[in-house]
């Protein structure tokens, strides 16, 4: 009788353990199936990336418009009267490649430029020429951001190979999960902040050079304006990089945009 009781007890314990193991196995299989379907449904991942590109496009508009207005306001109160001042401002706005081309111009071209009449140079002596030049440069940056956003939107919404495009965008062999997309976006923001700190060092060097130029070329009246632009540019960029999500784009706005793009997806 005692042996039968012990035997039944052992059988019940084994059955209880077996039932728990089967239950754990079912839960694990359910978790794998759920995870697989979540990975296959990449609407949120794609919408999240599109919204980030949209935010970057809006930031470029705000950034360019703000600096352009500062330039216009500054030139309304500070109008250079000498040709050398305007030529210094224009040369400061040119790229290194343009300066190299100008330095390699032959003497005949330089003589032709030097023989131009004051009426021919009057347009270049106008402060609005530099303002229009800067406006064109800012417009190119805005157009570039819009094209990048538009292409990303087409790849993730209208293209049939949206999952392949998602893997290429994330530089991954497998379809990225929601957590992996968030991690990648956070890494990109960290890299952007590091670039900002390196940019401070570069701006400090540029400002030091500008101060030396101003010391040795006192007739360059726009150097202090260029220095002001350089300092304001870093302050403006700091506000956008470190306070973008908190001030401009609230979480409610971001969630609403993600829902809108998810509804557009097949």
From TrEMBL:
The keyword DNA-binding does not apply. The keyword Transmembrane helix applies. InterPro entries: 2TM_dom (IPR025698). Pfam families: 2TM. Keywords: Membrane, Transmembrane, Transmembrane helix. It comes from the Archaea. The chain crosses the membrane at residues 57-77, 128-147, 196-216, 222-242. Residues 187-263 form the 2TM domain. This is 2TM domain-containing protein.
């Amino acid at each position: 009788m005692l042996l039968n009781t012990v035997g039944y007890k052992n059988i019940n314990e084994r059955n209880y353990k077996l039932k728990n193991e089967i239950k754990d196995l079912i839960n694990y299989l359910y978790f794998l199936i759920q995870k697989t379907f979540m990975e296959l449904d990449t609407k949120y991942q794609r919408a999240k990336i599109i919204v980030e590109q949209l935010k970057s496009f809006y930031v470029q508009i705000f950034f360019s418009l703000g600096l352009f207005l500062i330039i216009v306001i500054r030139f309304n109160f500070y109008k250079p009267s000498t040709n050398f001042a305007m030529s210094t401002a224009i040369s400061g706005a040119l790229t290194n490649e343009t300066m190299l081309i100008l330095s390699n111009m032959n003497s005949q071209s330089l003589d032709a430029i030097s023989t131009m009449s004051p009426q021919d140079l009057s347009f270049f002596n106008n402060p609005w020429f530099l303002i229009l030049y800067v406006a064109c440069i800012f417009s190119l940056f805005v157009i570039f951001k819009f094209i990048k956003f538009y292409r990303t939107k087409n790849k993730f919404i209208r293209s049939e190979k949206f999952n392949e495009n998602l893997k290429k965008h994330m530089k991954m062999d497998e379809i990225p999960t929601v957590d992996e997309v968030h991690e990648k976006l956070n890494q990109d923001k960290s890299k952007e902040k590091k670039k900002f700190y390196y940019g401070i060092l570069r701006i400090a060097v540029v400002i030091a050079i500008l101060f030396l130029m101003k010391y040795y070329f006192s007739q360059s009246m726009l150097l202090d304006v260029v220095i002001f632009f350089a300092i304001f540019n870093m302050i403006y960029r700091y506000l956008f990089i470190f306070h973008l999500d908190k001030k401009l784009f609230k979480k409610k706005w971001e969630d609403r945009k993600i829902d809108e793009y998810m509804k557009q997806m097949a």
